[in-house]
Fold:
Amino acid sequence: MTPQSVIAHVDMDSFYASVEVLKNPLLKGKPVVVGADPKDGKGRGVVCTSSYEARKYGIHSAMPISEAYSRCQSAIYLLPDYPSYQEISQKIMEILGGYTSHLEQVSIDEAFLDISWLGSLSKADGLCREIKEKIQRNCGLSCSIGVGTSKVIAKIASDSCKPDGLLVVSWDEQKDFLSSLPVRRIPGIGKKTDEQLRMRGILTIGDLSTRNIQDLIGWFGRMGSTMHMLARGIDPPAPVVKDTCRSVSREVTFDEDTADMGIIGDTFSHMAADLDTVLREERMSFKTLTIKFRYQGFSTKTRALSFSTPQESLDAMKENIRRLSGSLADGRKVRLVGMRISSLGSNRVRQARLSDFPGLCTK
Ligand code: TTP
Ligand code: MG
Structure:
C-alpha cells in the first residue's frame, strides 16, 4: 500500500428505515423499526434496522423483534419492502459509479470507491461533499462517507461519523485515529474474537497493532496476521478465494413451529422469487445455494449445493430446493427456514473490484 491510495467508503444511514420514511414522509422524526411483525410483543424474528430515533431506545439490527417492542411499543413497525430497497440501492450505485471505475459494492447500502485519481487525500473532502449532495438530491437519502489510505480505515471512518457525516483520515492522523478505538471496530472482529483478545489484555486497536505478530499467529492462525495488518490500517493482500463471504440471504420465522412440508415448500418458493428479483436487479450470479432449517429448541442445520458455473436464477432450482429441504426434514417441527446464495459474481462490466478483506465480511 502506498500513501497515495485514496479510498472512500460510502454507507447509507439507517438504510431500510430511511427508505420507508421516503415512501411515507409522515414517519420523519419518528422511531421506525423495519423487521418482523412484533404482534403485540409475541412476534418472532428480528429487527432488520431502525431509524436513529428508535436507536435511542436501544433498538438495533438483529435484536429479537419482541425485545424491540418491549423497549418501544409506540415505534412504527414495518415489514421489509425489498424491491424498493433494491431499486434505490441501484440508483445509489449508479451515482457512485460515476466517480470511479473502481467501485466495489459490498452490500445493499455500502460501497468502496477507489478515488486515488484525485492524487491526494486532501482533495477528498470536496469530492465526497459533492457525492453526498448528489445522493441527497437524487435519492432523498443521507449517507456517511469515510476516507483513508485503505479500505479498513475508510470503513472505520464512515462508521465513526454516522449519521450524515464525512470523515477524511489523513496519512499523518491514521495511527492516532485507530489507536484508542476498541478492537471490535475492525470489520470482521466479532463478539467471540473480541472476548479472546480481551482475555489477553488486548482491548484497543492500538493494543492489537503493537502486539507481537507471532503471538497473534499462535493464538489465531492466519487470521492473527490479518488482524495485525488491519489494526495498522493496512488492507491484507488480495484474497486467495474471492467472493466467498459475499452472499444474499432471506429468512422466515414461522408464527408457529411447523413440520408441514407444504407450508415450508411455499415459504422457500417465496424466498426464491425474492432472491431472483435481487439477482435480476443487481445483475448478479451465484455458485452456491444453501438451505437452512432451525428446529424447535434452536438447533440449526444447513445443506448446500455448489455449481461449477455461475447461475443467474433460482427459477430452475425448484427440484434442488425441494431435495435439499427434504433432506433436512426429519419430522421435527421447524421454527425458521432460510435460503442463501453465495459465491456471487457481478454481471456488471464496469464494476472492477477492489480486493475483499480475506475472510472478513462487512455485513
Ligand atoms: P447497515 O448499513 O449495517 O445498517 P443501516 O444502514 O440500517 O444503519 P447505519 O446507519 O448504521 O449504516 O445495513 C444496511 C441494511 O441492511 C439495513 O438498513 C437493513 C439490512 N440489515 C439487515 O437486514 N440485518 C442486519 O443484521 C443488518 C446489520 C442490516
Ligand atoms: Mg448503512
